[in-house]
Amino acid sequence: MRKLLAFLLLCVAVPAFATQPPGEKHTFRFGWGDMLFETLVFHANPRGTYPSPESLPPSFSRMEKYDFGYTGHFYAEYLRRLTRVVSVGIQADAEGIFWKEGNFDRYHNLIKAEVPVHNWDIVLMPTVRFTYLDRPMVRLYSGLGAGALFTFDNQKQFKAGIALNLNWIGVEVGKGHWGGNAELGMLNSMTDIFHIFQAGSRLLSFGAYYRW
Q1: Residue 4, pLDDT score
Q2: Nearest alpha carbon to residue 133 among 125, 142, 124
Q3: Whose CA, among 68, 72, 88, 181, lies 20 to 30 Å from 48?
Q4: What angle do CA 23, 24, 30 make, to 5 degrees?
Q5: Strand-pair partners of 173
Q6: How many CB atoms lie within 10 A of CB 76?
Q7: Residues 186-211: what's their mean pLDDT?
Q8: What whole-number distance in Å separates Cα of residue 102 and Cα of residue 147?
Q9: What percent of the chain has a predicted confidence (pLDDT) above 70?
Q10: What is the mean pLDDT of residues 159-179?
Q11: What does R_g of the chain's alpha carbons equal in angstroms?
Q12: What are phi and psi of 168, to 5 degrees?
């Protein structure tokens, strides 16, 4: 019985992966995703206000990060459809996080402002997509990607690490060359266990595609 079930599964799976894809085989897509993780982790320090600031030494100062800004994730991807189910490609993702740093006195007056920090994270990774519903107007798919993280800032700091993207479910809507897409996923990147730059990031993303 087990051999029969295995044979039946093989008969179903092989044609699904071996069948040539219909119509267009190339897709270029681009879009934007949220930065929920980054806004939770990279944020301003608690405001340094004190019940009795006059009791602190006149020379007291405290460094704070403030005025944070976020670009969101901008991504672009090229996909080559190999079969009706499997597509492979490469994706680039970029995000920016910006903030200011400065020393504040005991009354929370800015004493000295440092050079604003501009931090960028770039991810490059090969990807694979599995399309399990393909209709003229709607397609459902899942996928994953693994590659490299490059993070740098205007303070001349640079680090490289690893990145992993899991796309739980995505939907494309459109007929012809152009259409739109939305995805639920999670982008993760780190240089080591002590320096995690993205964890469950880009949960929701939206974009457009061109197929030919």
Answers
A1: 36
A2: 142
A3: 72
A4: 145
A5: 138, 180
A6: 14
A7: 94
A8: 36
A9: 90
A10: 96
A11: 24
A12: -65, -50
Whole-number Å distance between alpha carbons of 209 and 77: 9
Structural contact between residues 97 and 73, judged by C-beta atoms closer than 8 angstroms:
no
Q: Give the tokens for residue 136.
A: 């003229």
| Residue type (1 letter), 135 | R
Distance (Å, rounded) from C-alpha 101 to C-alpha 111? 11
Which two tokens mark 181? 């897409």
pLDDT at residue 162 tops 50: yes
Distance CA 83, CA 20 (A): 5
CA distances from 78 to 47, 106, 163, 201 (A): 45, 54, 18, 21
- Tell which phi-psi region holds residue 67, choosing left (phi > 0), alpha (psi between -120 and 50) or beta: left
CB 36 within 8 A of CB 203: yes
To the question of pTM greater than 0.85 for the whole model, the response is no
Who's near 91: CB < 8 A, 6+ residues apart? Answer: 75, 76, 77, 78, 123, 124, 125, 126, 127, 145, 147, 165
- Tokens 């995000």 belong to 95
